[in-house]
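Review form for a predicted model. The reviewer records the input and the model, then writes brief findings.
Reviewer: anonymous (R2)
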Amino acid sequence: MPIRNKLLAAIFSLSMIGVGTEIAVADSTSNKQVRFIEDYAAQYSQRLEIDMGDKLDVFGFLFSQLPVKVTVLPTEGYYYFQFYHDGAHFAGNMRLDIKDRDKGMLHFAYYSVVSEYSQEFLSEYKPLNSEDGVEVKRVDALNYSISFGDKTVEFALNDLRDQKPKTNQLAANEVLIGPMWDESGIPLFLVHNPVDKYFLYVLNENGFVPEVYVPHSYAGDIVIGSRTAFAYYNDQVHDRKILIGVKSSNVENNNYYDGPFDQLPDNFIEGDSLKNALELVYPDLKGQIDRYGNFNDFEGRFVIDAYHIYETSDEMIVHQDCKDQGLVSGSLFHCLAFSGFERPYDDLVLTEPSDTESNEELPAEAKDHSGSAEEAAKENLKSE
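Model under review:
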């Protein structure tokens, strides 16, 4: 069963470099439109007056660098940061989790950045509240004030309430669960079809999307983002791009291009719409989760990874096959959603609505996306 730890999920992503959302942390060049080698050299060489082993000391330093108002763009409430200290690169986040932010809780984590050629040597996490001198107060549904010492900062959560798919962008029987903003800088819609029983991540192109799309070498309906390596099926019938692939190296490094599974539209989920949708697509979840997909009996959240985790772009041909077989409408989109798990789809009908049976077993290839860095920080929940 694909599970992610909600206390630490996605904290091991890098901050928003390249999409204009990084916070200034002891970096006077952060407002520059172009950075030069001197700017980077200054960052690498800085030595801060902090004790990296003292979580509250690190938090105090980072909090002191914040402006009086910030916008939390990712829709699960993670406010990312990064900085250099003593020759090392660090990143992390402050998180307002919908399940306990109204109880005065702020989740705080930082870690040494891991890449394909380096190893993690530090990872720290601490939930902060009034006992730590951190006061979290709800202003309204999407605004919170956080005070520490003699400083107060307003945290404005990303207000996407006006973001809806265009009329023709939802196929028959599809419904919107909610709008999302991923830490990659990519805006998406989480879509559900209760008849054909699937989820889709649909690109939100209502405004500017910071991406350049490169056509697949031989799959005519597939494009790949040059910055994020997100792969999309170009659904020309509904004038939309459906996320179908995320690069495995990004998942393994747990960076900010590791897929939108950890930025669900928490603030915009109406009632039990997500819970009901999850239980319909994955019947084994019935009675096990709350309205956000958190498990009732242990710390973790079900992963909606309705896309392929690919090593090479050649693997995307399985999605092109969905169309080339002649699948249409709900059957086509069900195929696109589950091809990431290499589920058989030769028994899907070609008419709409399809009579595709519900998924009686969870996908065998479903993975725990919490990542090796998280395992080093805290015992990780494993897929059952």
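Findings: The chain is about 15% helix and 25% strand.
Further findings: Residues 167-377 form one domain.
Recommendation: see findings above.
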